[in-house]
C-alpha cells in the first residue's frame, strides 16, 4: 500500500500561441521529445496535457511558458491556480490609458462652457446681421413712394408690358417697381395687365391692348391721366375742389 501524500497536483491547459513556430519547443518542454502525433495534437487549442504536474514542476513550466508568451493555466483542487494569457494582458494595457483620459478637470469644464457660450453668442450675432440685411434689401426693393422722385410706379405685372420715356421712340420691357415720370407711356398686349400706383396713392389698372400716358398734376387741385387707346380702371383721390380726371 502506497503512503499518502499532501502534495498538490496540477493539470495544464494550453490556451493560445504567439505563432506556430513555438509548437516544437512546447512539445520538447513538456514531453522531452518531438513526436509527429504530439505536434499534431498541440495544434488544436485549447489543448489539455495528458499528465499532471507537481507544484514545483508547475511553477517551473509556468515561467518557461510565460517567456515563450504562450497562454496557459495550471489548475489544482489543492492549490492556487497559475494563469497567463497574453491576449487579456494586451487588452488591459489598451484600456488603461483611455480610462485616464475620461475625467474632466474643473478648468476644462469652464473652458467648454465658455466655448459653448461663445459659439451661441456668435450665432445670435450672425442671425441678427442676416435679419438686418434682409430688412435692408426689402427696403431697397420696396421703397417708400412718398420719399422718391417719380410720378407713378409699377406695382405688379401680368405677361408682357412695355414702357417708353417721355418724348422717346424706343419701347422697353417694363418691370415691377419701375419708376415712371410725367409723360412716360405704358402699353399692354393681348392678355397682359399692369397695376400702377401714383405718388399720392392713386391706383390704376391698365387692361390688355391699352396705351396710356402717365399724366401729371396740372395744379394743386387737379391731376390728368391720358388714355390714348384701350381701357383702364382707376381709383383716384380728389384734389381739393376738383377730382382727378382721365383724358
Concise account of the structure shown:
The protein is α+β, with helices and mostly antiparallel strands and 247 residues long. The chain has 5 helices and 18 strands.
What's the helix and strand layout?
Elements: E1 9-16, H1 23-31, H2 36-42, E2 47-54, H3 55-67, E3 71-75, E4 82-84, H4 86-101, H5 106-141, E5 152-158, E6 161-164, E7 172-173, E8 179-180, E9 185-188, E10 193-198, E11 203-206, E12 211-213, E13 217-219, E14 222-229, E15 232-235, E16 238-239, E17 242-243, E18 245-246
Parallel strand pairs: 14-18
Antiparallel strand pairs: 1-2, 1-3, 3-4, 5-8, 5-10, 6-7, 6-9, 9-12, 10-11, 11-15, 12-14, 13-14, 16-17
Give a written overview of the molecule:
By secondary structure, the protein is α+β, with helices and mostly antiparallel strands. It is built from 5 helices and 18 strands. The chain folds into 2 domains: 85 residues, Ribosomal Protein L30, Chain: A; 102 residues, no CATH class. β3 and β4 form a beta hairpin. The longest helix is centred in the middle third of the chain and has 36 residues. The N and C termini lie far apart (145 Å).
Amino acid at each position: 500500500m502506497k503512503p499518502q501524500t499532501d502534495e498538490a497536483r496540477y493539470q495544464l491547459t494550453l490556451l493560445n500561441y504567439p505563432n506556430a513556430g513555438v509548437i516544437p519547443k512546447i512539445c520538447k518542454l513538456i514531453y522531452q521529445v518531438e513526436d509527429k502525433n504530439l505536434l499534431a495534437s498541440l495544434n488544436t487549442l485549447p489543448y489539455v496535457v495528458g499528465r499532471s504536474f507537481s507544484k514545483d514542476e508547475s511553477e517551473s513550466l509556468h515561467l518557461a511558458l510565460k517567456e515563450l508568451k504562450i497562454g496557459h493555466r495550471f489548475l489544482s483542487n489543492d492549490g492556487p491556480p497559475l494563469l497567463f494569457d497574453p491576449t487579456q494582458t494586451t487588452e488591459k494595457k489598451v484600456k488603461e490609458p483611455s480610462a485616464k483620459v475620461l475625467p474632466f478637470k474643473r478648468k476644462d469644464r469652464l473652458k467648454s462652457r465658455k466655448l459653448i457660450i461663445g459659439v451661441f453668442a456668435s450665432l445670435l450675432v450672425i442671425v441678427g446681421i442676416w435679419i438686418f440685411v434682409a430688412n435692408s434689401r426689402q427696403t431697397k426693393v420696396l421703397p417708400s413712394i412718398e420719399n422718391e422722385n417719380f410720378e407713378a410706379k409699377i406695382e405688379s405685372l401680368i405677361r408682357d408690358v412695355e414702357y417708353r420715356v417721355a418724348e422717346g421712340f424706343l419701347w422697353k420691357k417694363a418691370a415691377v417697381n419701375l419708376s415712371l415720370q410725367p409723360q412716360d407711356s405704358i402699353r399692354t398686349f393681348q392678355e397682359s395687365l399692369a397695376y400702377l400706383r401714383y405718388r399720392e396713392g392713386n391706383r390704376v389698372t391698365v387692361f390688355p391692348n391699352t396705351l396710356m400716358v402717365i399724366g401729371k398734376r396740372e395744379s394743386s387741385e387737379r391731376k390728368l391721366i391720358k388714355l390714348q387707346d384701350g381701357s383702364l380702371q382707376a381709383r383716384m383721390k380728389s384734389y381739393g375742389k376738383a377730382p382727378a380726371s382721365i383724358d
